[in-house]
């Protein structure tokens, strides 16, 4: 039987930043593990803190905690004879399989350099912080095709905003340098 070794790496906390605002209930539950509705904001959204607590509880109940390495940062990943060699916090890990499952990027891309004066430009990770400034806005543009773009578009539509969602024809994120 082959030897199996698993490590789960995360930058800070299990699964999410506590400040990220996510989507409504029902869109973020594992089968058989319902998310608690304790502390639901009036707008019925799931906060980053709720997601983090949910995923941490899931990890505990699924006996994943011994496999999780927090405060881990992957600087680069390269091919090697055995398969893959990510460099994590300065040390090399070799593996035959590598699953790259990054959520909301912790370092946002630079905003376009040509922006209308007074326009609000923000990364999805900061949407909770700028939500109050969007109240007066009717038209909003969302760039990207990932889950965070979907979450932002869904949230903004549920707030009654007219959302223009920009996705490249190949379905990938829209590079900001093409907007400058």
Quick take:
By secondary structure, this protein is α/β, with parallel strands linked by helices.
Descriptive report:
There is one protein chain. This protein has two domains: 8-92, no CATH class; 124-178, no CATH class. It is 17% helix and 20% strand. The protein is built from three helices and nine strands. The strands form four sheets. Strands 5-6-7 form a three-stranded antiparallel beta sheet, with no helix packed on it. It has a two-stranded parallel ribbon with strand order 1-4. A hairpin with a 2-residue loop joins strand 6 (83-88) and strand 7 (91-92). The chain is extended and about 55 Å long. Residues 173-180 have low confidence and may be disordered. It holds the Pfam family Pyr_redox_3.
What keyword list fits this structure?
17% helix, 180 residues, extended, 3 helices, alpha/beta, disordered C terminus, 2 domains
**Largest β-sheet summary:** 3 strands, antiparallel
* Order of H and E elements: EEEHEEEEHEHE
Spatial separation of the terminal alpha carbons: 55 Å
Number of helices: 3
Q: Kindly state the percentage of residues in helix.
A: 10-25%
**Rg of Cα set:** 19 Å
Number of strand segments: 9
Low-confidence stretches: 173-180
| Basic shape | extended
Strand numbers in spatial order across the main sheet: 5-6-7
Total individual domains = 2
Task: Estimate the mean pLDDT confidence.
Answer: 72
Assembly state of the chains shown: single chain
Note the beta-strand portion: 15-25%
Task: Find the structural class using helix and strand composition.
Answer: alpha/beta
């Amino acid at each position: 039987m082959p030897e199996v070794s698993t490590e789960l790496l995360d930058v800070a906390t299990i699964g999410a930043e506590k400040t990220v605002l996510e989507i409504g209930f029902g869109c973020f539950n594992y089968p058989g593990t319902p998310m608690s509705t304790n502390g639901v904001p009036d707008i019925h959204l799931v906060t980053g803190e709720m997601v983090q607590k949910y995923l941490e509880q899931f990890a505990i109940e699924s006996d994943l905690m011994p496999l999780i390495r927090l405060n881990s940062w992957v600087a680069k990943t390269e091919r090697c004879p055995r398969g893959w060699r990510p460099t994590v916090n300065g040390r090399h890990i070799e593996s035959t399989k590598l699953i790259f499952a990054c959520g909301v990027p912790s370092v946002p891309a630079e905003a376009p350099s040509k922006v209308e004066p007074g326009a609000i430009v923000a990364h999805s990770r900061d949407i909770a912080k700028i939500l109050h400034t969007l109240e007066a806005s009717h038209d909003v543009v969302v760039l990207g095709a990932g889950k965070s773009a979907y979450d932002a578009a869904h949230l903004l539509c549920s707030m009654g905003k007219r959302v223009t969602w920009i996705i490249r024809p190949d379905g990938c994120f829209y590079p900001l340098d093409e907007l400058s």
